[in-house]
Design goal:
2 copies of one chain form a homodimer.
Chain A lengths: L3 H8 L3 H8 L7 H14 L5 H8 L4 E6 L5 H16 L3 E6 L4 H12 L5 E4 L6 H5 L6 E4 L9 E4 L2 H14 L5 E4 L6 H16 L9 E2 L5 H12 L7 E4 L2 H14 L8 E5 L3 H5 L3 E4 L2 H17 L7 E3 L3 E3 L5
Parallel strand pairs in A: 1-2, 1-3, 3-4, 4-5, 5-11, 6-7, 6-8, 8-9, 9-10
Antiparallel strand pairs in A: 10-12
Helix pairs in contact in A: 1-2, 1-3, 5-13, 8-9, 10-11
The structure holds a DNA duplex.
InterPro entries (chains A, B): HTH_LacI, Lambda_DNA-bd_dom_sf, Peripla_BP/Lac1_sug-bd_dom, Peripla_BP_I
Protein name (chains A, B): LacI
Pfam families (chains A, B): LacI, Peripla_BP_1
Chain lengths: 325, 325
DNA sequence: TTGAAAGCGCTAACAA
DNA sequence: TTGTTAGCGCTTTCAA
């Protein structure tokens, strides 16, 4: 409706002065500031963002790419990220891909058309090489380890984290250890699997394919896993589960089936999500909130220091001992 | 990076011509069009949206306000809406509120700052009167019946839909009918409850408070309801459930408990979601996709005919008979 | 069929 | 401390 010129006229000042109070610059007399604010209030004025963004070349928005946002994993990541964004007056724009490459491409395009200053990728469908092509148009941050020119990254060392989990179970006397994994095809998944296999090798045990469960992300997946284990003649005595949500499903079903935890089956989860505390589940905390915070930090660093080299940052994990082992 | 002026220079034409090919105007010679396209391709050019939006006064974006998007209810609504939006070259911007009024206000503010051309509200926290104050800044469409100056609406007649469901159960001989409802405080919920109570009155039965279950939205809620019913001495013989997701939970748990459907308990769901077909659940289809389509249609009508009066549109529902009654 | 030029609403360098 | 003014990148008359 009203624009800065009309406000200036109403307040009897120049547009520059109005712009100054809009951006809380110093060097505006108290009296003029008051008059400008009054004029804005009366006009119900809000600046046109398109004009602001065009003029400044910045949008104050960062896109966050994820498949969906309702899983506790992304929820935690987002929590830390948005908290940090808020602190620096940035707005996070949720970009849901539903695991579709086409959607992801549309969001990358937003970088090129200057709708966001950068993109934080919590997941990705496209190959990193294709994504990196957009580095010229804005900042790119990944929440997993990537080695690509122009992309910053913040990540957990999944190999070490899972090795830690495995050795912990082994120290507690387990030899027959099963493994639940989420999506198979990510780099992190490969690292996790490698740690699982290597740890078994350390104690001279072969990998038992029937003890490896793929596609475990939510509660119901975990319940299904427990059903399958219950039906086995030779069961594992322990389970390393990629997410707490799935681990919670294992626990829930085991109770229904009357299988004792940890007596008959020890369980180590991953992520230290709220549900794991409620269920007293031993888990590995990869500090997702911190990853989210650092991811925004890496983005913001690139904003504040244009031309700065991409960051690589490993966030430490921690084993949280409770009563499921 | 590159802007329209550089493309014009590279192609040896004026910026107006470049703008014309950008917007596929007629009256551009084939030869110049080719040269411009070639120049754009070589420069990897994409127009700056902020400049486009500022200049045109339109953004080609519509915000869709909802608490979250992963529930089948919103999924269906969004499906129809986005399909229609795509058809008219509009982009839907998902605005998740998590049921927080503050978030909703921030999204309304986007209307004022011209980041979106309109807002379609699939849910709302703020009172309609407060929302209507933004009608001056863009188009407002609600997915429920509202009577407020400046707001269009597309809706199901929930009272009639639930009356239909109740009478259907009554015709099938039921007298002891329970009722599952989602959130209590919406206008639709009130209508649904009124239909439930009125139908009981028609057959001279009182409302039994213990047969009314609130807060039923997902599968697990439905399972809990079934557990409670199973524990009752005097059980209802039929259940009218606000959403198919919750109804599916009732069915799932009843199977585990060995309670026959529809023999011991008849169930009517709502929404005709995919899961209801899988489970052969009798349900009331409120044609959510159509509501989504019409909601976008109401918005788009306001774009195409500026100044047009807000629309009110009732979408018909239909009872889908399957085997749970 | 084409181009020159005046905006769209704001920011920021510069001068005062 | 304030105002003038030249952009930011695009669209769209208007005249040719």
């Amino acid at each position: 409706m009203a624009n800065i010129r009309e406000i200036a006229k109403a307040a009897g000042v120049s547009v520059a002065t109005v712009s100054r109070v809009l951006n809380s610059h110093p060097y505006v007399s108290a009296e003029k500031r008051r008059r400008v604010e009054e004029a804005m209030r009366r006009a119900g004025y809000s600046p046109n963002s398109n004009a602001v963004h065009l003029s400044t070349g910045r949008t104050g928005m960062v896109g966050v790419i994820l498949p969906f946002s309702h899983h506790p994993y992304f929820h935690a990541l987002l929590g830390g990220l948005m908290e940090e964004a808020l602190k620096h007056q940035y707005t996070a724009l949720l970009c849901q891909t539903n695991y579709e490459a086409g959607e992801e491409r549309r969001y990358l395009q937003m970088l090129r058309t200057k709708q966001v200053d950068g993109l934080i990728l919590c997941s990705h469908e496209l190959p990193w090489a294709e994504i990196a092509a957009y580095a010229a148009d804005g900042l790119l941050v990944a929440c997993e380890p990537v080695r690509q020119e122009g992309i910053s990254c913040v990540y957990t060392h999944h190999y070490e984290a899972f090795l830690t989990g495995m050795r912990y179970l082994i120290r507690r006397g387990h030899r027959n250890i099963g493994f639940c994994i989420g999506r198979r095809d990510s780099e992190s998944s490969r690292q996790r699997y490698a740690a699982y296999a290597d740890a078994l090798q350390e104690i001279g045990r072969p990998v038992q394919p029937e003890w490896i469960f793929e596609g475990c992300t939510d509660l119901r997946d975990g319940m299904r896993v427990m059903d399958r284990i219950a039906a086995m003649e030779s069961r594992p005595s322990a389970l390393l589960v990629t997410g707490d949500e799935a681990a919670a499903g294992v626990l829930a079903r085991s109770r229904q089936l009357g299988i004792a935890i940890p007596g008959e089956l020890a369980v180590v989860g991953f992520d230290n999500q709220p549900i794991s505390e409620a269920l007293q589940l031993t888990t590995i905390d990869q500090h997702l909130q911190e990853i989210g915070r650092q991811a925004f930090g890496a983005f913001y660093h690139g904003i504040v220091q244009p031309g700065a080299a991409p960051r690589r940052m490993e966030v430490p994990f921690a084993l949280v001992e409770r009563t499921s082992v």
